[in-house]
Amino acid sequence: xxxxxxxxxxxxxxxxxxxxxxxxxxxxxxxxxxxxxxxxxxxxxxxxxxxxxxxxxxxxxxxxxxxxxxxxxxxxxxxxxxxxxxxxxxxxxxxxxxxxxxxxxxxxxxxxxxxxxxxxxxxxxxxxxxxxxxxxxxxxxxxxxxx
Length: 147
Hints:
single chain; 147 residues; mainly beta; four-stranded antiparallel beta sheet; 11 strands; 46% strand; globular
């Protein structure tokens, strides 16, 4: 895995069952040393080349299983470990053109030992005043290429 949260490996267009390009995918790693359960995850807003992608157009994939944001919020059993990146599949008719693309995406998560006052203020779309990657709070940006 790469050091950056947004991984370059796995960034590509995806096709539906009829072979039509229906979106794209990319991978993110968890910047936390313990891993989390999906119900702890707080997904943010995805921007690709400055275009906002609606949350309902994003599916998170862990170990071959796909989850919507709503499903993750209710899932107290599936664990996301630190050594396995998640794949985010994004619905976008026609996918992305060949070339470079700018991705901006933030997410955060709750932890049992964080005081509620800190957890209540978590906003995955804004940098916190104190950058604490161990608490998973960071807005990530990366420029990747599709060939």
